[in-house]
Amino acid sequence: MAIRLVLVWILALFAIPVFAADVDGFRVWTDPEKTRAVLDLDSRTEYQLFTLDNPPRVVIDLPKSSLDHALKFTAEHAGVIDGVRHGAPDKDTLRIVLDLESQSEIKSFLLDPTGGYGYRLVIDLFQKNGQNSQPRLKQISAMQEQNRDVVVAIDAGHGGEDPGATGKNRTREKDVVLAIAKELKKTIDAQPGMTAVLTRTGDYYIPLRDRFEKARKYRADLFVSIHADAFKNRNVSGSSVFVLSSKGASSEFARRLAASENSSDLVGGVTLSDKDDMLASVLLDLSQSATMEASHAVADSVFGSLRTLGKTHKNDVEHANFMVLKSPDVPSLLVETAFISNPSEEQRLKDPAWQRRTARAITDGIQNYFFMSPPPGTWIASNRQPVRHQVVRGDTLGEIASRYRVSLYSLRRVNQLKTDNIRVGAELVIPTT
Ligand SMILES: [Zn+2]
Fold first, then answer.
1. For the domain bounded by 386-430, which CATH number is listed?
2. Contact assessment for residue 234 and residue 168, using Cβ atoms and an 8 Å cutoff
3. Phi and psi at residue 338, in whole multiples of 5°?
4. Which tens digit of pLDDT belongs to each residue from 123-169?
5. What is residue 141's three-state secondary structure?
6. How far is Cα of residue 198 from the mean position of the Cα atoms in its chain?
7. Who surrounds ion ligand 1 at CB < 5 A?
8. Domain residue limits, the chain
9. 164: CA distance to ligand 1 center in Å?
10. Residue 345's pLDDT band (boundaries 50, 70, 90)?
11. Secondary structure class of 157 (helix, strand, coil)
């Protein structure tokens, strides 16, 4: 029963008067590495945290604080936390006790208000019994083989504490993009020669840089981040495809969007310091133009495929300074699948049939790209199929040629076209090298 370890005794910057804090809320998230508990506070406060054995638990004492409701959390996200209760060891202290399933390594810190959240006390619990026996991914061992699968890392945006954008009917971006990401993984895995991995599989937050670092760890051939857009004007609609801009955002709209997508790391508790900016610029410089070129090619292909589904927001692939796209060596794109702020698109985002169609269109675009330029040593390199393009309204032969980076001459020749007139719905074979 002895106090095992006094971990933290944090005083606020102006520690002399002890600040009283009300506890307004309590949330728990679990990701594959840790369980995160968050206490919402109405002000900055000092706290004392220690652990006890038998049964294992974490005790958090908040001096001069109060709590006027029961703390609750969703069992689904509970992770290592079995229960939560509170009491008062003396009349001036609020004590919150987390009952744990097993002894855990603990990190705690205070966060200042940001992104719609107020002051927070974050308690991260890491499982001790050195498990983490993550199943080896088939593609990593397959790397050694000939005819390996191409690996696509799919990143469902936001998660956990960071809900992303929210629709008029309270649909949360983090939920619908996870559903679409899972659907996309299913569709990609069903293609011969292709394997997909997810950066997140549940409702938890991953810092932006960790997302592309995961893709690099999996030796992904491609990174696709899935989002749903939002805008003040609820009439704005359509899907968009973004690649990283070499010099910041290319339009005011893209700049605004980049600011809101990038701010999620502030919500997640990690601040992008200027060191990160420098690293990012170094990475960008090093990021061989080959990666950028490949990102553009695959983005063009995915954009063309999404156009067959319906309205796109703009007429072309856009550029923005998204942190999550800054992988130096993995071609990366970000798909804003629809506007969650538009009520009819919000409806669609939740519709499993629409999610499937969108996943299918993204997969087609990705697959066509790999058929056009297969990485050496892959199954697709030795078994690729001819790429076909279905003509949609507004297509011209010249645009199709530039989209697939082929010459107008070869496009005409392969399809035995006498004129440049093309019929909506017609299928063109795209010549590959
Ligand atoms: Zn987003």
1. 3.10.350.10
2. yes
3. -170, 175
4. 999 887 644 434 334 434 444 456 899 999 999 999 998 999 999 99
5. helix
6. 9
7. 157, 164, 227
8. 5-127, 138-381, 386-430
9. 5
10. very high
11. coil
